[in-house]
């Protein structure tokens, strides 16, 4: 037991206290000693966390996943002014109007406080951290291990990056050696400047925690990244909620939306969007091209690993949406409408009729959002 505690301790992080806790307490989202969603979440956690350690056929790849190293491209800025490299799951590089942003960096082997236990990545990082271009800032959506990775944060800090994070997460970073003056904390609808970009924290519907005794001490968020010529929306981890039309009204049109589309389960439909609701969010924020994220690297839920792109493409055909699904590590310029060949294998997957993922409006299973008629 002592070994287990020692091996996890550096990664768990530090809960907010002092000035960090005081900042949390000023937030409209802080109630009863923790952050809370305006809309309650429904969870039927039968099987609970243990399902992460179980796998059924098709839930993990049975052959190597194709990846691409785009290091050579970074020597030249994108001709269009906007380039996106998806590294798998929600880890990305955005080259946006001359400013370079890393989103939810995850270069470690496992999404866990332990180096020897927990969901393991299916392939090595397609692009090593030291092959990235200059990094101006790192944007973090929340503090779950698949989005806030200590080793990646420290490596990017060593390269000179600053950090844009939701409320409370500065406590983790300071505990890992990041100076407070290199960290900007945001509440929902607050903004920060990074170079020519304005980065706005947008509401999401989720939770936080890193296996400490107290959860939801740090906020969860999405982001609108607004440049002089281009705009990007990133959902972060979220269930369906009532904020996206407002995001679209305030900040659209977005050239590309990066929306979490995988690791969903009908037992907890308010924690993650799933493919069909990802398309709904894409339409509500008024984005032109969708790149689905939060899939294709680790298994955190029971569905075929190839199911998110299959269901996204099926839903996109219903509404005429443009979807781009790059290979992990492939740098693409969304406004140039590149054609990316299908790179994942064909295998059985569940349709939305077979396995619907429908969020509740208020945490009550019988009160759900209306779904598009076409599947």
UniProtKB/TrEMBL annotation:
A Pfam cross-reference name: Lactamase_B_2
SUPFAM superfamilies given in the database record: Metallo-hydrolase/oxidoreductase (SSF56281)
Give the InterPro entries listed for this entry: Metallo-B-lactamas, RibonucZ/Hydroxyglut_hydro
Species, as recorded: Luteibacter yeojuensis
What is one term from the GO cellular component aspect held by the record?
Answer: cytoplasm
Where do the Metallo-beta-lactamase domain residues begin and end? 88-263
Task: List the coiled-coil residues.
Answer: none
Q: Which PANTHER family has this protein been placed in?
A: N-ACYL-PHOSPHATIDYLETHANOLAMINE-HYDROLYZING PHOSPHOLIPASE D (PTHR15032:SF4)
Protein name, per record: Membrane protein
